[in-house]
Amino acid sequence: MADTLSVVQDVLDNMVNFRRPPIGLNYVAYAVETHSNSAPDGEMKIATKSSNKDYLEHLLKNFSGPSKTADDQIELWERLLPLVHKAMSDLDDKLMETGQGENVRVVFDVDMGGYFYNRISRHAILFGATVDQAQINNGRCDREMQQMVSEIQAVFTAHGA
Amino acid sequence: MLSRIESLLQEMVKLPDGLQFIVFLPVCSASAPVTAAPRAANYTSIDVLIRLHGLDRLGNTAQRQVEIWESKISPIAKCFAELDKAGPTEPDGRPSSLTRLVLDVEVGGIFYATVGNHGCVFAATLDQQPLNSGLAEKYLITAVNRLDSLISGLSGPVCQK
Question: Which of B62, B68, B111, B151 has its CA 20 to 30 A from that of A56?
Fold first, then answer.
C-alpha cells in the first residue's frame, strides 16, 4: 500500500504541484474511509495530498478582505472534506430511487472557485479545490480531476490493490 | 410572468442531448408544493432512455420518473443549504456562497443551482453523454442566466397569490 500511495502522490503532484501556473486546481487530496471503534460508520482520512501553495498565495492576494494564507485556505478545505463526504453518502441513499445509481462526480461551484468530489472506489475519493473561478468556468479543473481519477484507478489496477 | 418562465423551461428541455426535466423554484414560494412550481419535461426523450437503461422493467414510466425527481428536490435542496452553510468563507472574507451543484451519477445527472436572488433551479437527465461532454452543465448555466435576466428585467409577480 505504501508503494501504491507514493505513486498516487506522484499523480497528484504531477497535476497540481509540478506544473507551471496557470493551473486549475490549487489543492487535491486522496482520502480513504477508515473504520475504528470511535467511528464505526467510517471516517474520511486524507491518505495523501498535494497543493501549489505559491500559486495559491498569489491568487489569494488578488482578493480584497481579510488576508488569508495558503495554509489557512487549505485548512478550511480539509475541514470541509469530511462534511462533503457525509452529505454525499446520505444523498446516495435518497438518489437510489431515481434508478440513476450513486454519485460518481460532484461539482460544487461557489462564488469564487469551487470544490470537486470524485469517487474512486466505494471507500476512496479524490477531493479537489480551487479559488480560481475562471478555471471552473472553462472546465479545466473538472478535466484535471477526471484525469487524476483515471490515473489513480490505473495505478490500483496495476498494483492489484 | 409565469408563462414566460414556463416557455423558457420548455425551450431548455427541447434542446438536443441536454436536460430532460427542469423546475424553477421561486424563493417567494418556498413553502408551496413543488408540483406548483413552473416546470418542463421532455417525456419523449425520458421514455426512450428509460427503456434504454431498462428502468421500464422496474415499472418506471416517464411520468413516474418525473415524480421521482420531484420527490428528490427537497433532500437535494436541504443538502445544498447545509453545504452552503458549512463551506469556508470566500477568499474575500464573505460567507461561502454555493451557486451550483452537479451530481454526476452512474446514469445521467442531477443539478441544482441558484438563480440570483430569485430562487433555484432543479434539473435532471438520464443521458450520460451530455454529462461527459459538459453539454448538460452548459445548458444548465444557460437556463440559470436566462431565467435571471428574464425575472430581473420584467415586472410582475413570479409567485401566484
Answer: B111
pTM for the full predicted model = 0.89
Residue from the list A101, A111, A113 with its beta carbon closest to the beta carbon of B106: A101
Task: Share the mean pLDDT of chain B.
Answer: 89
The answer to whether the CB of B13 falls within 8 A of the CB of B19 is yes
A154 and B CB contact within 8 Å? no
Task: Among B88, B92, B93, select the one facing A80 at the smallest CB separation.
Answer: B88
Residue pair B115/B22 in contact by the 8 Å Cβ criterion: no
Distance from CA of B46 to the nearest CA of A (A): 12
Q: Find the radius of gyration of the CA atoms of chain B.
A: 16
B2-153 to CATH, choices 3.10.129.10, 3.30.450.190, 3.40.1180.10, 3.90.1150.10: 3.30.450.190
Angle, to 10 degrees, between the axis of helix B62-86 and the axis of helix B43-52?
A: 90
> What would the pLDDT profile of A18-49 be if each residue is shown by its tens digit?
888 778 999 999 999 887 776 666 788 999 99
Q: Do B105 and A95 touch (CB under 8 A)?
A: yes
* Element housing A66 (H / E): none
Residues whose CB is less than 8 angstroms from the CB of residue A74 and which lie 6 or more positions away in sequence, other chains included? A27, A51, A53, A56
Nearest CA in chain B to A63: B92
